[in-house]
Amino acid sequence: MLIEIRGVQFNNKGAYLMLQACLEQIAKLWPTASVALAPSPNSPYILRSKLGVYQKIPLQFKGLHFHQLAWWLPKRLKTFLKHNFGFVFESDVDLVLDASGFAYGDQWGGRAVRSVCAEVLRLKRHQSGYIFLPQAMGPFTRKDDQQALTTALPEALLVCPRDDASLNFLQQCSQSATIQQFADFTNLVKADVPQNLPENYALIIPNSAMTGRQNNHKSWHDRYLPVLTDAILAVEKAGLLPVVLNHEGPADRVICEQLKLRFPDIHVVAPALPAVVKGWISRAQIVISSRFHGCVSALSSGVPCIGTSWSHKYEMLFAEYHQSGMLLSPSDGAEQIFHLISKACDTENQKLLFERADYWRSQSEQLWQTIQQTVAEAIDSGVIQLKDAG
Fold this sequence. Notes:
Blueprint: E1 2-6, H1 13-29, E2 34-37, H2 45-49, E3 54-56, E4 60-61, E5 64-65, H3 75-85, E6 87-88, E7 95-98, H4 111-125, E8 129-135, H5 143-152, E9 158-161, H6 164-173, E10 201-205, H7 219-237, E11 241-245, H8 250-262, E12 267-269, H9 274-282, E13 286-289, H10 292-299, E14 305-307, H11 312-320, H12 334-344, H13 347-381
Parallel strand pairs: 1-2, 1-7, 2-3, 3-6, 7-8, 8-9, 10-11, 10-13, 11-12, 13-14
Antiparallel strand pairs: 4-5
Helix pairs in contact: 4-5, 7-12
């Protein structure tokens, strides 16, 4: 079976973490399966090749898609390209696992929604399967998007909204799709803790999206850097060593550099591997994060976390861990943040975090059991027709 993992990349450590989680589960559930990844600006060949995966050739140009042509290519040619160059096409894929995280909704425009819906329908016609792994989705207010989703969602094997809001947005588009809610699944990836970490440190994880056009909370645009500055001051007042962690790469580097200018002695780290990022997070006394998976890695490790939000996925995540009061507002200053640090690090709150972390790990294990059963039933019933048993 050839499985394409979609929506992942290497710069954003959250997306990289989802890729790693998928690879681990595929190796566990389908040990003979092969994996394919498509190229993107943040997923270059040199990094994809190190994973030993096939290289999916995207037949598209300037928003126009020609994937249907792949189904007409001679089988001998495709076999030659696959075995000699590692090239595969959409027509070779048996199953897509979509781990986009947050790519479908009004904030991103309608092209992504209509494109993925067309792909779901193409794959279904050719007896290949599509599964939306847990991710934030919606809202969908454009009629074209709603119509596309109404048609395509029932043809997906499984659609997994990550939170109550996403579930509601999807159900408004389709009542007949196989929709099951599961939370983020990266909590199954084990942290890789570096040696010689500093003692008693707090992590500050910025996010350029807080001041981007997707953030409808416009007051953050002017207040974001001052809030991060006050967060560092509050961390120092709490007797902790502030460390800035770049969770994204180039996109967040500017903010990290701005904080470095304000605090010349502050330590900035940018681990290359997501498990190492999680290792840094798992040993922190507290994490103040604007990156979703920075928050997930903290909360799922039982580490107190204070967050900022630019979409509904943050409010939903913190509610799942019973931490709704731990999200900052643009008006918060150093005193308010210091108070939240004390509250978050309270012994009873930390005990609650560990309990919730255990619960959500068990839910992630249930997710992959559900996926394995869904795929097996699809193969047995002929909904998925394996193209190459090898």
